C-alpha cells in the first residue's frame, strides 16, 4: 500500500477525535457551561460506572474464547513494559530538568501511564471502518479491534490504580512532610536542604519497616522451624494489609476491571456463551442492550477529554522543558522502543502474526498520558494546574503524532 494512502487512513480517526474534542472544549466555556465542572463530574461518573463497563463486557464476551484468550497473553506483558520503561525515563527527566519535588509523581505518571482506554477504543474501530484498511473486512476487524482495545482498557486500569496511583501518592506524601523545628525554634539546615529521592521500587516492594511485626520493645526469638513458619506467615499477612492500606483497591477493582472478568467468563464458558451471545441465544437481547449502552462510551469520553483541556488554557507555572521532556518520552522514545520490542516478540514467536493485534500492541507505546492522572492529582492536591498544562499540550499535539505513528505502524504490520 502507498504511504500516502496509509497516512489518510490513519489521519481520519484522529481527525474525528480532534473535532469531537474541540466540541467538548467549546461546550466547556463559561459562556455556554454545558460541560462545566459539575457536568463533567457527572459525565465522568456515567462513563466510569456505566458506559465503559458495558463496552468492555459486551465486546470481550462476543469475541474472546479459550483459544483467543491464550493468544492475548503478551498484551499484559507489553503494557507492563510501557509502564516500567516510562517510569525509568520519567525519573531520568526529573534529574535532567531538576523539577520540583511536588511534581515527581506527576512527571513519572505522565511518562509511564498512557491513555490505554478511550483512545484505542476510538482509533482502532475507526481505522477498521476506513476503505483500504489492511485489517480485512470492516465488521470482523471492528469486532476484534474493540475486543483488543477493551482488554487494553481493563489492564491499563489495573496498573493505573495500583502502580501509578501509589507513585503519585508517595510523591504527595513526601512534599507534605515538613522539617521539624529544634529546641531553639530554628529548622535543621540539613533537613531543610536535603531532597529525598523518589524510590521507584516502592510501588513494587514494601520496605521492611512497613512490614514490621514486632511490638515496641519486643524481641522475637526463633527456636524452631514451626515458630519460624508462624512468624513468616504473620509477616506476609502484615505486608498484604499494609499494601491494601496504601493502594486504592476500590479503584483497582474498577467497574471496567470487573466487567472484563465478566466478559471473559461469558466468552469462555460455553453454557453462558450459548445463553447470551449466539444469535439464537434465549437472552441475546441482554447482550444487545449492554452493547448499545457501551456505544455511548466513545463520544462521551471524547467530549470529556476536550472539556478537561479548558483548565490547561488558563496556564500555570509549569516549566516548558518539563512539558517538552514528557512529550519527547511519550511521542519519540517510547514509540521507537515499542517497535523494537514488538519486532523482537515477533522474531521469537511470542505473539501471533495478526496485523490488527500487532497494531494495538504498537499503538500502546504512542499514546498521550492517561486522563486519570488528573483525577489523582486532584485527589492528593499536588500539581493540579501543572497536570492540566501537560494534558493540554500532549493532547493538542496528539492529533499529528498519532496520525504519524499510526501510519508507520500500519506500514509495518501490512508489509
Short description:
72% of the residues lie in helices and 0% in strands. It has 415 residues and is mainly α. The radius of gyration is 23 Å and the shape is globular.
What would your notes on this structure say?
This protein is mostly helical and 415 residues long. The protein has a single domain (3-174, 253-408), classed as Na+/H+ antiporter like fold. Helix content is 72%, strand content 0%. The protein has helices at 3-28, 37-63, 66-71, 74-97, 104-112, 118-129, 138-176, 189-193, 225-246, 249-252, 255-268, 270-276, 284-294, 297-308, 310-313, 320-347, 355-363, 372-380, 384-414. The radius of gyration is 23 Å and the shape is globular. InterPro entries: Mem_transp_PIN-like, PILS1/3/4/5/7.
Give structural attributes.
single chain; 415 residues; Na+/H+ antiporter like fold; 19 helices; 72% helix; 0% strand; PIN-like protein; transport
Summed over residues and divided by their number, the pLDDT gives a mean of 77
Gross geometry = globular
Order of helices and strands: HHHHHHHHHHHHHHHHHHH
Number of helices: 19
Q: Which architecture does the CATH hierarchy give at level 2? A: Up-down Bundle
Measured on Cα atoms, how large is the radius of gyration? 23 Å
CA-CA gap between termini? 8 Å
Provide the β-strand percentage band: under 5%
Number of strands: 0
CATH class equals Mainly Alpha
Structural domain count: 1
The CATH topology label is Na+/H+ antiporter like fold
Residues in helix, %: over 70%
Query: Biggest β-sheet, characterized?
Result: none
Task: Find the structural class using helix and strand composition.
Answer: mainly alpha
Low-confidence stretches: 178-223
